[in-house]
Amino acid sequence: MEKDTEVLIRPSRDGDVDAMLAIYRRHIRHGVEFGVDEGDTPEPDDLRDRRKNLKNRRFPHLVATRDGEVVGYAYVVLFRKRPAYRYAVKHSIYVHHEHLGQGIGRLLMRGLIDACAAAGFRQMIGYIDADNTASLGLHESFGFVRVGHLPAVAFRHGRWSDSVMVQRSLGPGATTPPPPPPLSTR
Ligand SMILES: CC(C)(COP(=O)(O)OP(=O)(O)OC[C@H]1O[C@@H](n2cnc3c(N)ncnc32)[C@H](O)[C@@H]1OP(=O)(O)O)[C@@H](O)C(=O)NCCC(=O)NCCS
């Protein structure tokens, strides 16, 4: 695999959905993080709708491309739906299995953090399988702190697995209140 070609980060498009789905499916079948049934995999239309919804609500949804091919993606959703939680997001990040360990996860994470901070979000939260050393390492290197350990919350590959909850503040974090809402919504 060509490692010297430049990797670009940009917002995802409808045309990226099939490539994102292929990356996701491969991790489902082989990844430490997943181990779910094929039936739980979203279909292309689901992913397309989901992506459009996220985009409409201005939640960052990014892809990494190399030579025009999608080699990874990352996005956020609201941490919780209730209005009080509107400044906190929960993220996901996936890199194509043939492009792991080449700095793409790092580029996506940098892009996602910057885009979320620019969008006004204040906290970013992730759940990581306790055995997922790559993801734990990536998050640690971006200043995510382990804020929780959830024992035995997943059952996969014939055994119970723990999850680690990580969190990082964005922009001014909790040092200032959020800006007042626009006049039209007051
Ligand atoms: C986690 C994941 C996104 C990392 O992407 P990546 O492109 O391989 O990572 P990078 O090459 O950018 O590495 C960034 C950092 O992650 C950590 N890391 C990456 N691979 C690692 C590994 N195999 N072991 C330990 N740490 C690792 C390191 O801290 C690394 O920094 P360094 O190179 O300075 O040591 C990727 O492994 C992946 O897609 N995994 C499957 C899906 C998944 O688990 N997503 C996360 C769900 S929470």
Automatic annotation (TrEMBL):
One of its GO terms (molecular function) is acyltransferase activity, transferring groups other than amino-acyl groups. SUPFAM superfamilies: Acyl-CoA N-acyltransferases (Nat). InterPro entries: Acyl_CoA_acyltransferase (IPR016181), GNAT_dom (IPR000182). Keywords: Transferase. This is GNAT family N-acetyltransferase. It holds the Pfam family Acetyltransf_1. It comes from the Bacteria. Residues 7-171 form the N-acetyltransferase domain.
